[in-house]
Fold each of these.
Amino acid sequence: MRADRLLRALFVLQSREMVTAAELAAELEVSLATARRDLEALASAGVPVYPQRGRAGGWSLLGGARTDLSGLTEPETTALFSLLGQTRGAPAEAADAIRKLLRALPATFREGAERAIGSVVREDAPWGERDATPPELLPTLQLAIAQQRVVSIAYGDADPVDVAPLGVAAKGPRWYLLAHRRGMGRHEQPRLYRLDRMRSATVIDETVARDPAFNLDEAWRQASERIEALRGSASATVRVEPHAVEALLSRFGAQATDLGPAPDGRTVVDARAHTVQALAEQLAGWAEVAEVTGPTEVRAELARLGGVLVERYR
């Protein structure tokens, strides 16, 4: 979101006497051209930011660094604090930061911002599932990422390993750490570690330089695609009754594709899972409204499951 990035740019300007466009680009992880446009946008919006020419020049706020959010418009303020209001279960430091931001707002915006904070309730878990709070180790990992420090993590039953943390990502109720193991090259694919499987995380007094070209959004997208490919390695062709198509597609999510109508009026769906057994187990509950036409191994596994049920409940 550009409003969020402009706010971050303003914070950078407030924290330093002067900043170059290149330094701001590195801080915001954007291109040099984008950083320049952001600085010009702040100036156009009435923020007293001015360029100073010369070798030692850059951009600075008139009057020096100070905490003042008066450059934000009311819609930007509402959008920002609505987003901040979704940080349920965040550490106390986050709540303190929100209070400081509120105090820094112009008085005319403050009341609306306070209402915006309380206007959103967010639960990541669907109905019938438990809503997971952010893991206890999350603040430790975020601090290590900000300080570019190595972290020793104890993961699962394995011995502790040292990693260079790159970022954290939330997928539904689960949190993941993207990191390079010590000794891995910068250009190798980062590994994913589930935070709820970590026994401990200890920040080590060792810094690690982050690749300036690293993009967390792109790295997470690639990691997600790899996981989805593994989850969808087994597939089946299914003919589904018209009234059940939307429900089945919703249940399988990204692992189901509507292939269009069949000659008999049903809809053909491609359904996937990480193994034949897992796929058959998921499809077994749809027997009244869906027929698996292939492949043979999925049909055979469904028949085996049916036999187990018959024997159990005879």
Note: The domain at 232-313 is CATH 3.30.70 (Alpha-Beta Plaits).
Amino acid sequence: MMKLKQQHYALLLASVLSSPLVMAEDAMPAAEATPAAAETAAAPAAAAPEVAEAAVAPEVAGPYSMSRSIEVGGGGHHVSGGNGDWNSAFVSGVWQTDTANVFDWIVQNDHRFGESGTAFNGGWNHDINQDWFGRLEFGKSSAGTFWADKHYGAAINRKWLADRNLVSTFGFAYNDNRQGYSDRVYTVGLIYYFDGPWVVEGGIHRNLSNPGSVISTQGYGAVTYGRDRWRQIVLSVNSGSEGYMPVGNSASQQIFDSQYYSLGWKEWIGPHWGVHATVDYYHGTYYQRSGGSASVFWDLP
């Protein structure tokens, strides 16, 4: 049972960062997001289920048999339109306590649009039974209109098919933003785990922002290749409309289209450590952004 979970909980932190705290643009799929890039307060995505053994890393015996890790890194982005470049630094972790519970967290400091702020997000992932599992999360930031002041999220997920390798997810998130508006984000999605080292994912974020009952919708998709303790490559894209977008201390923009593309590569160099790099590009009505992040991670006993 533990062996079948190993790869998928390793993907969990990326799932977390695609959804949590975050801001009011660039909704991303669950499969891949770096802290420097994740920006829409999307509802929590599915943590991964137990699936076909071919996609799973060789069994790790002893103290490294659970998904426990820490990651430290930073990133930078060039932003058009005289909006100033971005930079960030972060530390994040995953800690599995037993076969049914995984906790994750991230602390990140960003400088964007002439502002700086630090944010924290934490999540709890719980296996209810062999078919159902869920997630709760909470986030808080210290400053910066690009961060949500507070974030709350929950998701319920269901495994399907004989091998339980198709997962449906429904998530809800609420974000209290510093510029006087709030977001209610609903997410529905599907994840399919192939027998080999491939995962495909797709879904929709539906966002209701107030005041004004501003409705926006974004679709997302991702393809993942690889397995835990070897290599994971993720190509992701999302496209659609955005509701509110804070740009520093200026007034938030409303209802416009945007696209986001990301390519991530996570490589184990030693048995219990490696590097993780991501490049991404965002195209919106008000500015374009390109850049990436790099980090080092360690698996923990």
Note: Residues 1-41, 47-59 have pLDDT under 50 and may be disordered.
Amino acid sequence: MTIDNNIYSINESLIPQKRIIIDTDSGIDDIISIIVSLKYDKSKLEAITVVEGNVSLKQGILNLCSLLDVNSLRDKKIPIYPGCDKPIIQNFNIEKPYSSFSNFHNMNSYSLHERNLITKHIQKEHAVLALIRMVTNEPNEFTIVCLGPLTNIALAIRLDPFFLSKVKNIIVMGGCLYAKGNSTRVTEYAFNFDPEAAHIVLTAAKQYSVDHPHKTQPKLTLVPWEVSVEQGLDWKFYDYLISTPPVNELTYLMKELNSIKELLFRKSHESIISRTISNVFHENKKNKQNNNKINNIIDNNEISTLTLFEDPLSVEDQIYTSNAVLQYQIDATKFIMSDLYTLVCALEPESIIKEYQDLDVDIELSGKYARGLTCIDWLGDGQKTLNARIILKVDKNIIKDILIQSFKQNKSLYLQKTPITSEPLITKLKSKL
């Protein structure tokens, strides 16, 4: 650190970095998360392992090759290890997310790169064997961030019973807190895609807790689907991210990747909000109740998308409704980046995590509707087998801050400026316009 006229300059080489392995099914959110892991100064991405999930294993590898072929990332020497191409018990009936939109998760379909893709990153070693090798050679060094189904991790645990004890920690985007699913009615996609894999990982984490009762934190951290829904980002922030200078190759890439997501969700989001405000207004008018917040948004009883979104940051706090279904639909059609929330929980846990609870978690393996359901011991009967730290609430301003730093290369807005506490606290929304 150098000091010059009260200006502090920090040598980036002195910033402690988290050694990260990302296990991914290479969907849109995964790709954005990987970009952040490559650009953020506290992240040291050392390997990517690929698993079938949002896309096929082959397509997932192509997506990653497309990403690492972007000019500003071509100097990154990140090994890619192909992993499992099907669940442990294959379910031929499982539907890929947004299957009617064949290009939804396919990077190469956007024609971003017409040249031949660089395939030097692809390794011959299987992802499961690579994971075991890396954590065995350097125990307690790597944080594994799981952004897809847990098939690779489960098989690593089966092949090496001491795998969990060699990992620093595992952060998983997976499961549902309150059975508000994004894959089936009650399940999150990754857990639904391979529930047996999730069961193996959760069971191993439970055994680890039993074998290491002195440990103050479970080896496994879960970031459930509802967390990113409840703390989703406003679409106006997305506009800022892709449109406000400096606009570069990565912001263009983000725009291309999210074009179908924007088509699917943004208009639905605006329509639901307009309908909600209209209903609240007319209900208040009928009951002769005055709601200043709503009245401030509505001009002469006329609601339009333009009027509604003139001041999105204030609107965000004004439209909450007592109708739980409408509220979920509003939240679930925001600009949601579930995988990024998971990555940032690994990189900046002290800053982003606002509420959490260590709990006993399992998964349902049968049932017509409940297969893949996350089963949480809310009553605390399993106090001796707390196998997962469940993230309940995050600070989305930290997400904004890291996106700005990674894609706009601007300085921090929120990090280290707001005191953060981590307090323990006891559909697929398939919108098609």
Note: The mean pLDDT is 80.
